Amino acid sequence: MELFVAALLLSLPAVLMAQETTDVETKAQIEWSDFWMMRLFFNLIGYATIFVPGFLIIRHLRKIKYNETAGNSTNGNSTKGPGCIQNFMVLCVFGKEQHVSLEEGGSKSSSSDSQDESFTKRTIRLLICVAGLQGSYLTWGILQERIMTLEYGSTATSSGEFFKNSQFLVFINRILAFIMALLVIFFRKQPAHTAPLYKYSFSSFSNIMSSWCQYEALKFVSFPTQVLAKASKVIPVMLMGKVVSRKTYEYHEYVTAVMISVGVSLFLLTSGDATRHKDSVTTYSGLVMLVGYMLFDSFTSNWQGALFTQYKMSSIQMMAGVNMFSCLLTSVSLIEQGGFFESSAFMFRHPEFMVDAIILSICSASGQLFIFYTIAQYGPVVFVIIMTVRQGFAILLSCVIYGHPVTVIGFFGVLIVFAALFLRIYANQRQRALKRAAAAAIPLSSVETSEKA
């Protein structure tokens, strides 16, 4: 017995060392799995399980011209059973290729109504969009920073834990927005849908990635650095518009874009918040996240603008289509990684996180309603201008509420931003007036030419 006790005492240090080594290895494995590159890799693997089979199916159906085969087989047959599935497949891959002509009413009346709409009504609608976007996303930004940068469950005697799964936040934002869009479609009449459903997947993927990069960036860079990147996003959006939609912009649009970026940058760099975060470490990972956010977000708004122009769908239809694919992609990826179990366990451990997540989802869903409507009515560049100004308002509210000082240079930056906005409104209004005058002068000149003949 004594020999056994002695052997146990001698082996105890080795056991403790082995246990410590195991704990270190487990901790290293957890830290490695939390690294953003690994998270991104597993996320992309999850998305590939949807995109790769989908691409192969779409290519095969287009190769065999499935829309013609399905149309012949369902003529005169009931819409129940296989015929309904065939129609759904055609809608997913081909859509309704025959767009509504101008003579049949669709886009011509809405286009003429928007051109003939008074400046006052158009301004009021724009102000409503601005108010909705600002209210939704100012609240959303505050909660976003809280969830990603503060510890939950921390007390005076013990530290808490951070929430790490950014993709789960993307999922809960998109699922509520998808449900809201479906409810609006169910209760409100929508125009005939003609776009192939798969085309929503491109902007859905870029939207997921931009949101994920935005959440992940807060782990590596200071808040003013992230806001500064967003403030300079107008120019990448315009450049992406030239690539995606072959758009051309006037000189005043480039000038006002630069003015807005410079003005917001001056304000943010000299604000109290920038001073407070001046010791924060900006890593290469954070810069990669910011670049990724800007590129993906620029593609999203321009691709959606191109779909609006080509297929004339409503903003609610766009919202439903994009969020449908977003829910599909994120849910499959979370299931494969066990993200639902991990995030649900965190939620039950910290009920305050559940409250923050619910409010975050509500703000995101309501904000998306304004996003799609604004892009459909005013284009992606106007939308980005509104969201850029929102960044300045976020810091301005912080200065008012928490007493941060505003420097002279910062105030000058705000004046530059609003001067650029007024210049852009004036230039666009003047351009529309010149187009209307030129359109009215064409019939008059043709009458004079016929009289002389």
From TrEMBL:
Its main location: membrane. The chain crosses the membrane at residues 37-58, 124-143, 168-187, 251-269, 281-299, 320-341, 353-375, 382-403, 409-427. It holds the Pfam family UAA. InterPro entries: SCL35B1-4/HUT1 (IPR013657). It is found in: Membrane. Residues 1-18 form the signal peptide. Keywords: Membrane, Signal, Transmembrane, Transmembrane helix, Transport. The keyword Nucleotidyltransferase does not apply. It is a multi-pass membrane protein. It comes from the Eukaryota. Belongs to the nucleotide-sugar transporter family. SLC35B subfamily. This is Adenosine 3'-phospho 5'-phosphosulfate transporter 1.
